[in-house]
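Sequence in, structure out.
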Amino acid sequence: MDDETAARIAALEQHVDRLYALLGQQGPYTSPSWTRLPPAPNIPPPTMAGGVAGGPVSETVMQFVRRGKEIQAIKQYRQESGSGLRDAKNVVDAVVRDYRDGRIR
């Protein structure tokens, strides 16, 4: 495993542990029996249109947004990202707002 991959995995482990901490539980990577990778460098989280984390939406999703087909855009985003309905709707809503406001094309 190269250094960049190890760093990305370590960053993801830290994010998972923070999410568990928010739920008041011990994360799986805080266990003493878990062999941790070296600490991750300061890698900024990916962003997408509207400042929503998760990366840019695909051109297919944008085509649905441009045509005003928000439900199809949500379905497509869910299929591509594996996210749940609420998260996909929030992402597509943010993209629609930015598209209507002229911040993205």
